[in-house]
Amino acid sequence: MKLLYVAAIIFIFNVPFGYWRANVKKFSLMWALSIHVPVPFVIALRFLSGIGFAFITYPILITAFFFGQFAGGKLYYIMKIRNGFITSSCLPCDVLKNIFSINRK
């Protein structure tokens, strides 16, 4: 059960990084950073939660990491392309900006 909680936290933590990744040029430095910056957090979370590094944890946590990145990219697409919201690379800033502003592109 603890493993599923950690996977959920990793998923939620990666959504803003996937949003950031969707807004930068593919294979650029910022793109690589948006993928690799959350990794130390995942490692720290493994230690703090006590789940360790057993083989069974890898597929579950890597899947949560991947789907968090994917969901953030889709969220960027939905906000910018489909709804025409004002977007940048910062998900929390964009959400607040679009909640309190009626301006659209």
Task: Describe this protein with a few key phrases.
105 residues, mainly alpha, 5 helices, 71% helix, elongated
Report the C-alpha radius of gyration, rounded.
15 Å
Order of helices and strands: HHHHH
The number of strands is: 0
N-to-C CA distance:
44 Å
Unreliable parts = none
Strand content: under 5%
> What would the principal axes of the Cα set say about the shape?
elongated
SSE class: mainly alpha
Helix content: over 70%
Oligomeric state of the chains?
A: single chain
Q: How does the major sheet shape up?
A: none
Q: Can you give a write-up of this model?
A:
The chain is mainly alpha-helical and 105 residues long. It has five helices and no strands. α1 packs antiparallel against α2 and α1 runs parallel beside α4. The termini are far apart.
Summarize this structure briefly.
The chain has helices at residues 2-22, 29-36, 39-49, 57-82, 91-99.
Write the layout of secondary structure elements.
Blueprint: H1 2-22, H2 29-36, H3 39-49, H4 57-82, H5 91-99
